[in-house]
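Appendix B, Record 12. Input sequence as logged:
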Amino acid sequence: MAGRIPQQFIDELISRTDIVELIGEYVPLKKAGREFVACCPFHDEKTPSFTVSPPKQFYHCFGCGAHGTALGFLMEYEHLDFVEAIHELAARANLPVPTEAEQVGKTRKDHSRLYEILERSARWYRRQLREHPAAPHAIDYLKGRGLSGETAAAFGMGFAPPGWSNLLDAFGKDQYHPLLEAGLVVEKENGRGYDRFRNRIMFPIHDDRGRVIGFGGRILDEGTPKYLNSPETAIFHKGEGLYGLYQARKALRKLERILVVEGYMDVISLAQHGIPWSVATLGTATTQAQLRRLFRVVPEVIFCFDGDRAGREAAVRAMENVIPEMREGRHIRFMFLPEGEDPDSLVRKEGPEEFTAKIGNSIAFSEFFFEHLTGQTDMTTIEGRARLVELAKPHIQRLRQGVFRDMMLAKLRELSGTDTVQLRSSGNKTTTKRALRGKKHVKSTPSPLRLIVALLLQCPRLAELAGRPERFQRFSGKGANLLVQLLELLQANPDLNAGAIVERWRDQEEGRYLAKLAGWTPPLEDEASLEAEFLGALIRLEQQLRELRTEELLNKAQQHPLSPAEKDELQRLLSRNGE
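Logged structural output:
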């Protein structure tokens, strides 16, 4: 649940955060009885269906189903992960975020020294760009690329001077091993080291929290490789990182789309020309991990490639890599530049308006997918159309089950001219669930157990009326286990609100169940009525428990003789059930 951040701190953070005040900074809320309402920030609507409950410290949209706590709202609205949201709320409450001591027998390395040496190195490289005798050559290069000093400073650009040990000499021998661990020093066979980056423009690479995790370096003058990245380290993974994403999120509070380009200079030049929403991969083809990271931030990703053969081949590789991440609600497009141009040169030549217009004319994923495959066969013949089916089916099979895959399959049938194209059966649970959801919902009386949990979320202090939680352990199933845990939690912590309770089970199946119940508002709002409803549900639950236990003992008696204690228990149950 809480990971390395103590649960007690998370509880305190939730209790100190006023969810109405927090959400009110993003959405205009209006008082409506005991709650606040607004048009939902997560889907388009004209009539408000988004409610925020101060007692529960919980929000719920009756239109799209979005719901959660203050932490959940920040994660969804600001596209933060759990730890980032914790730090954001803690900063608002002026609280330092503590971490638990590592568990015995587990080794989770503290990377604070690694972050520190990388940040120090970034500052040192920036200083060299201002002060080193060889810096004018680097500055002339940047000016020749049309970059301003303000833009270079915004991206933290620096300069690694010529020479084998400038960084090593500046930091001293005692920092040799930290620099080696950070990938900034290369060790030779004789055990001595030298600077990895020499005579290069330096591009610090940041994580989502703005910490430097690695560097890219562009050679000045002649030399290879033209671009050099930090090696893989404990905190730098090329298949996961994205250059410029941190700056893009800083520049625009709410990103709508992201342009993926190939070069760091492309990202910086586009930002200077008023297009601050581009990123670059770290010298590799786009991975599924990078795409998942992007889709956490935006619903639309546009890949930008050169218009030559190499660019088309790169686009095909990207298309094949991202297929498992495609689904309804996610949009991928492909943009191809004129031959001989890159984003940097084109935006300087044509200007941001013309460049943005070209982005608008980019090709949708589905269009590029079928365009690529139909180009490999003769669509005027039966054999060619059959070949298309053979080529397309393995790729469509990799798509996640849902509307998008169904529509891609329908398009394949249309192009091939046959309705008989089928995918391998994989138990289409998604379709079955969707069909069930489409049926008219029939209201039913909630089970006593479900009602008890819902009332506890509405008024946590009711837990003190439930008696010993362990008496419900004889129920089988997750619901009974959750009830026992919930009662134990609230009897020990009666001041927790619904938001804090839900956070205890974050990212678990029980958490989704609790979040759904937390959005329910009982028809009776006064505490006396809630108590009466709660006690009545407890009585009905206990009756169910007796009936289940009775049935269990009767079934057992048909198979094996009961023990004297079981016989006495069955006699008591039968007499009570007959009352």
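The two ends are 44 Å apart (CA to CA).
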